[in-house]
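TA notes, week 10

Several of you asked for a full example with nothing omitted. So below is the full record: structure tokens for the whole chain, then the designed sequence directly under it. When grading your own attempts, check the secondary structure regions first.
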């Protein structure tokens, strides 16, 4: 049986910023993405990895929180 590759939220955040995007964790732990400067095709490829994937979105939120608290994981 072939295992699906694991999701790495830090790599996903790096991919978003590499295409010109940004992110923020707003009040209530809501994710905000800044995507005005992103190429549409590249953005589609990046976002497709998390759309409809609440566990991945939660992993991204946790990664941002860890970074905000100075933790390196």
């Amino acid at each position: 049986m072939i295992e699906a590759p694991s999701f790495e939220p830090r790599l996903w955040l790096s991919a978003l910023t590499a295409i010109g995007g940004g992110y923020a964790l707003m009040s209530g732990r809501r994710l905000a993405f800044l995507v005005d400067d992103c190429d549409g095709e590249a953005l589609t490829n990046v976002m497709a990895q998390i759309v409809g994937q609440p566990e991945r979105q939660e992993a991204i939120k946790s990664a941002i929180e860890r970074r905000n608290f100075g933790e390196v994981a």
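Residues 14 and 62 are 15 Å apart (CA to CA). Use that as a sanity check on your answer.
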